[in-house]
């Protein structure tokens, strides 16, 4: 997850400008570009950990809701989660936010690990969790007592999947990282900045971390073994550099869905016509997600900083909206591209209806 917003604020004035009401696509068909409040939207992958006074009006302007996805990780201090913050947000703004719980593999060797995890999930589902997230801890970070990295298809996790199946709770899976994580840093790659800032996830520097192919294979095996659980693969299943790889899995696994949070730069680096064809073919299985959020308490920021944060957030949502709905030239994470110009019926599905159906929202 990347809590910081990935488009520089210096660009916000340009991207915050509203597009024209109508433009021409590459084949001269008119493309209607609507304002931010016209269509209902759900950001299925958000991390607004701390409250902001501006958020209710902001989400109302965008006609948007968000799923708050728990961050559950272990560091030198211990286990860190966002769950309590998110639960408070949902209780305060039930019409604006929904909840996604999470699990971690720490303690998997303990005989009661699965039961304790199920008890945690049962409580959090009762509190409103609509989905459960598994993170790249599986495969890349957390090890068992033997020193082996715990893969997502580990049989010791199966009782948890069986429980979620019985509750008809879907799973959001952020398994693996972009392929760039296993390569030398490339300034031309859209993930260059992230791995410069987060070297702990630059697998190239840690040869003991399993290969990209190993982690993706384990993820595929897990999906295949659990056909009765709907699985939303975050970040386009860590295959965002190649929509053909994503399409191959969607064709193979009918219980798999995807969202492109923090991977729009990868899409922008591919041919726009090809990416549009991907969205068109899988229009019922692609959701809108951003990975946007915050990690700093409001009282730690000045009035000016909060205003800049809001403007930057607005600019970033506009950038993604322009990419999906418009046909103008733009740039995402250093990748120059052209907007997809998706028709309104597909935009309605991607931005809203697919998530409603998946999470059984009202």
UniProtKB/TrEMBL annotation:
Pfam families: Amidohydro_2. Residues 103-311 form the Amidohydrolase-related domain. One of its GO terms (cellular component) is cytoplasm. One of its GO terms (molecular function) is carboxy-lyase activity. The keyword Hydrolase applies. GO terms for biological process: secondary metabolic process. Keywords: Hydrolase, Lyase. InterPro entries: ACMSD, Amidohydro-rel, Metal_Hydrolase. PROSITE patterns: PROKAR_LIPOPROTEIN. It comes from the Bacteria. PANTHER family: 2-AMINO-3-CARBOXYLMUCONATE-6-SEMIALDEHYDE DECARBOXYLASE, ISO-OROTATE DECARBOXYLASE (EUROFUNG). This is Amidohydrolase. It comes from Ulvibacterium marinum. The lineage of its organism: Bacteria, Pseudomonadati, Bacteroidota, Flavobacteriia, Flavobacteriales.
């Amino acid at each position: 997850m990347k809590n910081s917003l990935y488009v520089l604020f210096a660009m916000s004035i340009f991207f915050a400008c509203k597009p024209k009401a109508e433009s021409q696509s590459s084949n001269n068909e008119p493309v209607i570009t609507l304002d931010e409040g016209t269509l209902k939207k759900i950001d299925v992958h958000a991390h607004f950990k701390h409250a902001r006074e501006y958020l209710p009006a902001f989400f109302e302007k965008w006609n948007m809701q968000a799923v708050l996805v728990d961050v559950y990780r272990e560091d030198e201090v211990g286990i860190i989660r966002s769950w309590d913050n998110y639960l408070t947000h949902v209780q305060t703004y039930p019409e604006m936010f929904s909840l996604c719980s999470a699990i971690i593999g720490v303690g998997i060797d303990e005989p009661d690990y699965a039961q304790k995890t199920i008890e945690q999930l049962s409580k959090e589902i009762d509190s409103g969790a609509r989905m459960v997230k598994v993170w790249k801890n599986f495969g890349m970070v957390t090890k068992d007592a033997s020193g082996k990295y715990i893969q997502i298809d580990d049989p010791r996790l199966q009782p948890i999947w069986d429980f979620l199946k019985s509750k008809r709770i879907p799973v959001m899976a952020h398994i693996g990282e972009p392929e760039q994580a296993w390569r030398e840093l490339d300034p031309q790659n859209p993930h260059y900045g992230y791995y410069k800032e987060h070297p702990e996830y630059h697998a190239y520097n840690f040869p003991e971390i399993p290969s990209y192919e190993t982690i993706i294979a384990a993820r595929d095996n897990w999906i295949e073994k659990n056909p009765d659980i709907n699985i939303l693969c975050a970040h386009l299943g860590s295959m965002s550099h190649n929509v053909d790889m994503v399409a191959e899995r969607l064709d193979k696994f009918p219980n798999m869905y995807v969202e492109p949070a923090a991977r729009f730069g990868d899409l922008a680096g591919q041919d726009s016509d090809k990416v549009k064809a991907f969205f068109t073919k899988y229009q019922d299985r692609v959701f809108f997600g951003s990975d946007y959020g915050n990690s700093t308490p409001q009282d730690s920021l000045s009035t000016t900083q909060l205003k800049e944060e809001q403007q930057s957030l607005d600019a970033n949502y506009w950038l993604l909206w322009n990419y999906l709905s418009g046909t103008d030239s733009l740039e995402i994470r250093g990748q120059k591209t052209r907007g997809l110009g998706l028709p309104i019926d597909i935009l309605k599905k991607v931005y809203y209806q697919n998530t409603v159906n998946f999470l059984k929202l009202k």
